[in-house]
């Protein structure tokens, strides 16, 4: 007898990725707080950070931070909402809205980080 | 003056208009009485219409799981005086449809249990002259798993189940892992099949209510973590 229909979830990879990104965020967040608030000699401000964030390494770290934090946070939000939203159209709408928000912030962030050049200031 | 006030959920399907309501029964609780003893006392001496499930009265059958003062427990394994409260509120298990008073319809519990194929699956034929052997170490791996009596206390305490009635639930996961961890079982894939599902493992958010609710002190959350690892290993090697 077939008791319930089976709906594939593909949740394993996403679940694992959420753990990995969680660890990555913990490390990068610690670095971020330490570098900005403890290791910095001068007063925190644009002048103090502009040279550092112009280097390719920091641009890479910042972009990965941006993308991974947005993914981790917004996917986490979806996981919570997923439990409680059962109507098909509402699920599509909310998932779409989250995806659009992610896209807007990733674009804005990358547009800020990538072309940044302290020489202009 | 009775020592205790029992506030018990009443519901009669033949009186839909009245719906659910709480009825209070005064009771002189004696030392050593379990909640089940108290309910029996009320049913036999005060109100024969009070309905609840019980069978073994010794924590084996799992029939008498209910919510007492907000906590899921076996009525027959909990002494009333240990609750240290003169008011005792007794409700049916949460999340399941109530049939009458304290009796719930456990069909969803059974249905999700079937989904994980809760039996030993073997491929190699049984030798004609011996049993399927298991070393004491291998046997020890299913300690804390095989003891489940399927009372439903865990799943009925789980917010993921409250939100999704098709959610397999901690009892199903614990049972699945009981066979996945059994050295004699050769059907890991079959047991895991139903778990990697929209209503499966990934809906567990490690809330730990099931661990607190289990009257047998088992740890479904740990079993769930092991199963998650098992599935991730399967996917990414
Ligand atoms: S009556 Fe059997 S477990 Fe309580």
What does this structure look like?
The complex is a heterodimer of chains A (121) and B (237). Chain A is mostly helical and 121 residues long. Chain A contains 4 helices and no strands. Chain A has helices spanning 11-37, 46-53, 56-84, 88-113. Chain A starts with 10 loop residues before the first helix and ends in an 8-residue tail after the last helix. By secondary structure, chain B is of the alpha+beta class. Chain B has 2 domains: 2-104, Roll (Ubiquitin-like (UB roll)), CATH 3.10.20; 107-236, Fumarate Reductase Iron-sulfur Protein, Chain B, domain 2. In chain B, a hairpin with a 2-residue loop joins strand 3 (65-68) and strand 4. In chain B, helix 2 packs parallel to helix 6 and helix 6 crosses helix 9 (220-236). Chain B is elongated, with a radius of gyration of 20 Å. Chain B starts with a strand and ends with a helix. Chains A and B meet through helix 1 and helix 3 of A and helix 2, helix 5 and helix 9 of B. The site of FE2/S2 (inorganic) cluster has 12 residues of chain B, from loops. FE2/S2 (inorganic) cluster (FES) is lined by residues 54-57, 59-64, 74, 76 of chain B.
The second-level CATH architecture of the largest domain in chain B is: Orthogonal Bundle
Order of helices and strands of chain A: HHHH
Segments of chain A where pLDDT lies below 50 for 5+ residues? none
Tally of extended strands of chain B?
7
Total strands of chain A? 0
What's the CATH first level of chain A? Mainly Alpha
Distance between the termini of chain B: 67 Å
What is the count of structural domains of chain B? 2
The CATH H-level superfamily of chain A is Fumarate reductase/succinate dehydrogenase, transmembrane subunit
Give me the number of helical elements of chain B: 9
What is the helix fraction of residues of chain A, given as a range? Answer: over 70%
Let me know the largest β-sheet of chain B: 5 strands, mixed
Helix content of chain B: 25-40%
Q: Oligomeric status of the shown chains?
A: heterodimer
